[in-house]
Amino acid sequence: GRKWTEVGSITPELKDQVILIRGRVQTIRPVGKKIAFVVVRERGFTVQCVLTVKVDLVSSQMVKYATSLSKESIVDIEGVVSIPEKPITGSTQQQVEVQISKLYCVNRAVPTLPINIEDAARSEVEIEQALEKGEQLVRVNQDTRLNFRILDIRTPANQGIFRIQCQVENIFRQFLLSEGFVGIHTPKLIAGSSEGGSAVFRLVYKGGVPACLAQSPQLHKQMAICGDFSRVFEIGPVFRAEDSFTHRHLCEFTGLDVEMEIKEHYSEVMDIVDRLFVAMFDSLNENCKKELEAIGKQYPFEPLKYLRKTLRLTFAEGIQMLKEAGVEVDPLGDLNTESERKLGQLVAEKYGTEFYILHKYPQAVRPFYTMPCHDNPSYSNSFDVFIRGEEIISGAQRIHVPEFLEKRAGECGIDVKTISAYIDSFRYGAPPHGGFGVGLERVVMLFCALNNIRKTSLFPRDPQRIAP
Ligand code: 4AD
User: Fold this and answer.
1) What distance separates the 2 farthest-apart alpha carbons in the chain?
2) Cα(394) to centroid of ligand 1, in Å?
3) Does the pTM of the predicted model rise above 0.90?
4) Aminoacyl-transfer RNA synthetases class-II family profile domain location, by residue (predicted)?
5) Angle at Cα 186 formed by Cα 183 and Cα 190, nearest 5°?
6) What are phi and psi of 39, to 5 degrees?
7) What are the CA-CA distances from residue 299 to residues 90, 295, 319, 368, 395 (Å)?
8) Per-residue pLDDT tens for 140-168?
């Protein structure tokens, strides 16, 4: 095979070398009949290629042919790398040109596209400026983007977002493996709901048996602990039949779950959260610079502020901070989105971090399997974790005594019969344990300060969308 060069790695050091690239036609600009500029894009990076009529090498027919190519067609180009006289602007545009000697069209795109990638890639500020200048421009709305997602995800920002997502997953796995965790997979078709009755997709299993799509791996990851895997993690789909259409709820998302034995205190679980996420943010900042830059160009954002040792506040301390700021909330209730955001602001001002853990939540607002506090059963050994004032994680110590678990399930209105295998798992010797669940799309959304979770889901499923 011949040697191919990626558009993203054509650097000035390649000057005068012949290279071979494959990409998409982003734009074609003919200048008279003898010259055409072809901007080629590959995975979010672009390079300007120049076709100039030259005796025995490039004919005027070839220039005409190139000019006829439709945008987004796939092309192979062979040419010599040169350094343009005028410097090129744009962080994803390579600082070189390619003088074309050969150009083949591998596959044509239809002549009219529902989304123009260049328009879809502009920031709000760039759109405003273009409109002021009277440029013809179509503002691409969210529904159009999602309807034609395979075009939309070609923008540099989107290419960056999904590479960041992959890296988050990768670090999650690598970190936990290095800490002695084992990766597992739990069933997504289950007999009863795993997080309580609301927001569950119900279906009919073989033989007419009622079943659910798992709202979390909660029950089975705990059963794995009962099965002597003392530390487990899972990366898998999570289904929630959410009714409300919000910026941060999907009906299917990717859960990053952890469950582990606790030797002495539920803070051992928060220690893992702390070290895992500091390692993750460090790695994203260090290893994903190009991606973060591409995202920031379209959706400008400030890098996340986080501390070397993650701040932990108790729920009561959080309530007190809100109270001092004039926000009254029920000390034994839950925080709503607005008060969570407000607390996020207060914490950032006071402690200089946009990433923190809030723990010891009121027992009444936590799921049935949550362990109450030893010294005050109105509170629980549980926590939520926030980025920029929005929840990305919830976690807790679990009840490992079967009689107590059964009692709590009943009190929370759960039909104990549907989870009998789960409860029975604790009858054969179960260690104290706890864990947490992370929403992958939320982590990426909030790390990059994006305003909508649909931007970080490749093909989002929400209450109004199940296609494409
Ligand atoms: O807070 P949740 O519901 O907690 C659980 O599922 C527990 N079983 C976790 C545990 O181990 N105790 O969900 C965990 C995380 C949330 O913090 C949020 O990041 C994400 O999952 N999440 C959603 N993400 C997108 N769309 C939704 N509808 C989400 N619901 C929860």
Assistant:
1) 89
2) 6
3) yes
4) 162-460
5) 170
6) -90, 125
7) 15, 6, 33, 40, 31
8) 999 999 999 999 999 999 999 999 999 99
Confidence at residue 91, expressed as pLDDT on a 0 to 100 scale: 62
Spatial strand order of the sheet with 182-183 comes to 182-183, 231-239, 252-261, 433-439, 390-397, 382-387, 355-359, 311-314
Number of alpha carbons in the 13 Å side-chain half-sphere of residue 67: 15
Res. 131 pLDDT band, cuts 50 70 90: very high
Which protein residues touch ligand 1 with a CB less than 6 Å away? Answer: 195, 216, 218, 240, 242, 249-250, 253, 257, 391-396, 435-439, 441-442, 453
Reading phi first (left if > 0) and then psi (alpha if -120 to 50, else beta), residue 326 is in left
255-291: pLDDT as tens digits: 999 999 999 999 999 999 999 999 999 999 999 999 9
Residue 321's φ and ψ, nearest 5 degrees, are: -65, -40
To 5 degrees, how large is the angle CA 238–CA 219–CA 388? 50
Q: Which of 193, 392, 394 to mutate to test the pocket of ligand 1 (most atoms within 8 A of CB)?
A: 394
Question: Residue 19 corresponds to which tokens in the numbers above?
Answer: 């290279």
Annotated catalytic residue: which of 391, 398, 406, 425?
Answer: 391
